[in-house]
């Protein structure tokens, strides 16, 4: 199994971004409002991928006038669905086609405070690097620390995502909680230790509930920060097997810096491939596959989506992940969509 086999399963790449936009927004899309799960409460109790998790968020930051954006302060509806899909090695196409393996390195752009995708996917790979602006660092660190044991254990519920009505009785100080209707409510976790100082937080070291070096958080501003191999955190890797992003594009101003960052991260692997290509000619090394970029999003504004897909398709061969490779909650007419890209400079689908 290789990138070629995955692309064969994906079908033809997108040729016309305007047509892609029209087809998606011509669907009978459900009303999702803005797409929060519940932006009023400070702790959500969720069942994701068969695991009961308690996720802290910040309604106060969301409603603030903070410069640079506040959307990462709360959990969005697509996030647990994407986390469930990405973290299923037996069905997710990135795993079944061996683009992702237990030795893989993943990076997430615009992770937000929840850490949900990392919590579910990190146990399946060697390292998962979360990135976002500094304001999310404290909560994402707390969420990973407090939920790692549950996330890395065997599932206690059927795979999928569920959130339910508020728990009966008085809410805790953190506010009303949401629980899974299929599972037993769990207690709101105690607050974790405060994040350390500096721009980098090494999640999992110093006895962080057994996470080891699996998960890291690095601050990243798409407009000002340089992408370098230091993002991997060492361990012998200088690039990533996959870049993932979940519901990161809310206005056209974000499109260029976001896509440019996706390109820059994928170029880390391109540089490694160029070096290994020379070594492979002498039989010393097999050339690694290109990085793949996976972008999941809610379908909100057609003009914003079209601006993104046009710009993304300039740099990446782009595929919409077909329904048969998705969980039911992400398929057509769900109001969500997942695209996959490979740098045009690194791969030619016509060569398959």
TrEMBL record:
Pfam families: Methyltransf_16. Residues 158-180 have a biased composition (Low complexity). InterPro entries: Methyltransf_16 (IPR019410), SAM-dependent_MTases_sf (IPR029063). Residues 150-210 are annotated as: Disordered. GO terms for cellular component: cytosol; protein-containing complex. One of its GO terms (molecular function) is S-adenosylmethionine-dependent methyltransferase activity. This is Ribosomal lysine N-methyltransferase 5. It comes from Dichotomopilus funicola.
